[in-house]
């Protein structure tokens, strides 16, 4: 039998490692991001002294009311309650330097209505002003906003570890003229956002 030759094995082990095409570092072509957060509530507006006339039934009419010379004074407020914001972002790089980005945000904006009497209510058999103030406090208006954002991203040097990028998008009623960086921007690099 012929003895085993270890020469080819020694040549392979002694040669320096080389990267082949399949082992090259890939470029990110598609980035999908989900994000969310909490929004603190705050006061929207308040009227500290709102006069409201005491209503009386008009004689000779069925169910009609007229203002008397007496007034109740109410404090009326509207606050935005705390809520959540959710969003999704997608970025697709068609080439190593040019990419397209789309984002959608959802922001819940529930309102809290407030009403209280500054002074004791005037005598009223039907207590209409007190009922009105209680109805205002019981009402809760819940609204929400959805914002859409689309833009173009340019990568200066996509082969490096830290990639500075610049994004630009047209401003529209659904997108603010200048937006703050989203969590997706912090993962992609230092953003440069301009609206035109």
Structural description of this entry:
The structure is a single chain. The chain has 196 residues and is mainly beta. The protein has one domain (27-195). Helices cover 13% and strands 48% of the residues. The chain has helices at 7-14, 128-138, 183-188, and strands at 30-39, 42-57, 65-80, 83-93, 98-117, 142-155, 165-169, 193-195. Strands 1, 2, 3, 4, 5, 6, 7 and 8 form an eight-stranded mixed sheet that branches. It is rod-shaped, with a radius of gyration of 33 Å. It starts with 6 loop residues before the first helix and ends with a strand.
Overview features:
196 residues; mainly beta; 8-stranded mixed β-sheet; 8 strands; 13% helix; rod-shaped
Secondary-structure blueprint:
Blueprint: H1 7-14, E1 30-39, E2 42-57, E3 65-80, E4 83-93, E5 98-117, H2 128-138, E6 142-155, E7 165-169, H3 183-188, E8 193-195
Parallel strand pairs: 7-8
Antiparallel strand pairs: 1-4, 2-3, 3-5, 4-5, 5-6, 6-7
């Amino acid at each position: 039998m012929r003895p085993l030759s270890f020469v080819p094995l020694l040549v392979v082990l002694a040669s320096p490692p080389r990267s082949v095409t399949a082992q090259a570092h890939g470029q990110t072509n598609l980035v999908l991001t989900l994000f969310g957060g909490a929004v603190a509530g705050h006061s929207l507006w308040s009227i500290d002294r709102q006069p409201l006339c005491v209503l009386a039934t008009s004689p000779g009419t069925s169910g009609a009311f007229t203002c008397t010379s007496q007034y109740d004074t109410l404090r009326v407020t509207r606050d935005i309650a705390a809520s959540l914001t959710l969003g999704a972002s997608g970025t697709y790089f068609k080439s190593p330097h040019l990419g397209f980005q789309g984002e959608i945000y959802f922001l819940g904006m529930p309102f809290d209505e407030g009403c209280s009497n500054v002074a004791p209510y005037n005598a009223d058999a039907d207590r209409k002003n007190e009922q009105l103030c209680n109805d205002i406090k019981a009402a809760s208006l819940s609204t929400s906003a959805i914002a859409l954002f689309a833009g173009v991203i340019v990568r200066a040097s996509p082969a490096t570890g830290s990639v500075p990028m610049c994004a630009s998008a047209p401003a529209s009623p659904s997108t603010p003229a200048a937006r703050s960086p989203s969590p997706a921007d912090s993962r992609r690099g230092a953003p440069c956002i301009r609206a035109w």
